[in-house]
Specification:
- The protein is mostly helical.
- The chain has one domain.
- 74% of the residues lie in helices and 0% in strands.
- Helix 1 packs across helix 3.
- The longest helix has 38 residues.
- It is rod-shaped, with a radius of gyration of 18 Å.
- The model has no long low-confidence stretch (mean pLDDT 91).
- It comes from Bacillus pumilus (strain SAFR-032).
């Protein structure tokens, strides 16, 4: 029989791994957003496909209840951000 301490420890380790995965995805998402913003600023074609693929993975983790949901990003959102940034 496992002890309560072992069960709590295993649960805590699982939550920690869950959060670590989320943080790694968050970093990748930020990099993808930065790349889309950069391309938009340079008037180059860009998509939000990579951002939203990462966001979907993050939201999958969020369904576990520990980490927050993230919004999907549209091309218009990127353009509006760049326009505000340039003012």
């Amino acid at each position: 029989m496992t002890s309560v301490h072992e069960e709590i420890s295993a649960h805590s380790q699982k939550q920690h791994a869950h959060i670590q995965s989320f943080l790694e995805l968050e970093q990748k998402r930020e990099q993808a957003i930065e790349m889309a913003v950069f391309k938009c600023e340079q008037n180059e074609p860009f998509t939000t496909d990579e951002i939203n693929a990462i966001t979907s993975k993050m939201n999958e983790l969020a369904r576990g209840g520990i980490v927050p949901l993230r919004k999907l990003v549209t091309n218009d959102m990127v353009r509006e951000y760049v326009e505000r940034k340039q003012k």
